[in-house]
Recover the amino acids of this structure.
């Protein structure tokens, strides 16, 4: 019998490219038919066939509280009945700006936008405008949204400028982007030795979640901060995924590094379209209407999205919130690893706060090459086995996963037990 997921997927492809509104949702990396979800509550989601899953994607990070948290829903409803959008300032925007600058001490000022892509695109333009330089440095395997300057892959040589990684990106724009290996302080030092006074900005994921999970070395972070400061380049921490996910202080608080600009998304909107970029006053004052760097948005600071964000940011400040989230994520990683080892399966897992990585490899990788050496096919088999058992992981071996505050010890234990059954039967 054809499942409703299948019927919907076939119908979706009539008028939506690939049947999805964002490529990773199409399951092309893992194969099979994507899940169409109809309902979420707490740690669970239900698909179009009524099948229940424990959710370890959480909309790719925003749902740190779990699905449909009553306080967030109430805040959204209270805002919505007063009007969905004004295209004019509202007091709630001041409240969330004040709160973000309080929770992120490196930010004197912040501008709200509607997606992580907008946040990083705007931060890069701002860094270029502030420094008067064009060159952008990013790292292989890091994803910062789909603005043209970021859809660039490494050039032929380590220090040669980038080539487009997507159709439609002009080669002469990609030429301004240098793509370096992540966690490689020597390569970064060499790039600054060669191009130091031309580099406008360096952007990175301070914990990578887009080539699976990769943790930065202290040396790499130190080199980033020292070299950008020495050469007058703007250091951008893209905390769209790590922001309020790895801790209340985000990655910058966890690692004790103060970036010049930061970007946020996902958790700050609590599942609604809200993102932000912010940083030092002297840089942020270059943004229109104060300064010459243009940036705008019809729905920027949308009051309904801001209401969801404020409700979420309030709840994550509860005493013990991150201790519990980290403990549950640790329980998952330890449990899966122990289960795999018990049955002789090459597998490991690691986490930072409430985001985790799963790898079919002996040890957890710390580089792009290390991730590429993991057994992707084994992950894909694991993904489908767990999906069938009612545990929804990210449909790609190159994505981080997420635990929410709604996941209980019993939920995690059930996921570990399902994984052990599969490891045992391999
Ligand atoms: P959005 O434009 O998708 O809101 O944010 C882009 C972005 C920026 N920076 C980081 C570190 C990100 O992880 C993202 C988006 N993350 C992906 C998950 N790998 C979103 C999922 C998707 O593309 O559908």
């Amino acid at each position: 019998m054809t499942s409703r997921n299948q019927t919907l997927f076939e119908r979706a492809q009539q008028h939506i490219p690939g049947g999805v509104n964002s490529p990773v949702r199409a399951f092309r990396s893992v194969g099979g038919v994507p899940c169409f979800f109809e309902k979420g509550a707490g740690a669970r989601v239900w698909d179009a066939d009524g099948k229940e899953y424990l959710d370890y994607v959480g909309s790719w990070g925003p749902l740190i509280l779990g699905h449909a948290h009553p306080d967030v829903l109430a805040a959204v409803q209270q805002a919505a009945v007063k009007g969905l959008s004004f295209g004019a300032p509202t007091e709630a925007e001041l409240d969330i700006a004040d709160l973000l600058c309080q929770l992120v001490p490196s930010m004197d000022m912040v501008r709200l936008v509607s997606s992580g892509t907008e946040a990083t695109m705007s931060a890069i333009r701002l860094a270029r405008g502030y420094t008067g330089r064009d060159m952008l440095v990013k790292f292989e395997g890091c994803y910062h949204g789909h603005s043209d300057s970021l859809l660039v892959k490494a050039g032929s040589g380590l220090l040669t400028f980038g080539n487009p990684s997507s159709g439609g990106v002009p080669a002469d724009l990609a030429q301004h982007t240098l793509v370096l290996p992540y966690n490689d302080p020597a390569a970064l030092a060499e790039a600054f030795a060669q191009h130091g006074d031309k580099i406008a900005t360096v952007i990175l994921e301070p914990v990578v979640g887009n080539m699976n999970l990769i943790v930065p070395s202290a040396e790499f972070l130190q080199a980033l901060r020292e070299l950008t400061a020495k050469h007058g380049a703007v250091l951008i921490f893209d905390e769209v995924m790590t922001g309020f996910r790895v801790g209340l202080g985000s990655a910058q608080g966890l690692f004790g590094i103060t970036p010049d600009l930061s970007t946020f998304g996902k958790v700050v909107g609590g599942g609604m379209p809200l993102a932000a970029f912010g940083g030092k006053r002297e840089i942020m004052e270059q943004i229109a209407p104060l300064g010459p760097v243009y940036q705008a948005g019809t729905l920027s600071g949308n009051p309904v999205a801001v209401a969801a964000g404020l409700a979420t940011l309030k709840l994550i400040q509860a005493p013990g919130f991150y201790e519990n989230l980290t403990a549950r994520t640790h329980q998952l990683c330890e449990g899966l690893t122990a289960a795999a080892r018990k049955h002789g399966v090459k597998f490991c897992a690691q986490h930072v706060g409430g985001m985790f990585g799963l790898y079919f490899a002996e040890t957890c990788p710390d580089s792009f090459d290390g991730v590429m050496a993991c057994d992707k096919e084994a992950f894909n088999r694991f993904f489908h086995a767990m999906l069938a058992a009612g545990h929804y992981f990210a449909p790609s071996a190159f994505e981080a996963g997420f635990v929410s505050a709604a996941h209980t010890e019993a939920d995690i234990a059930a996921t570990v037990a399902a994984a052990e059954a599969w490891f045992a039967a391999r």
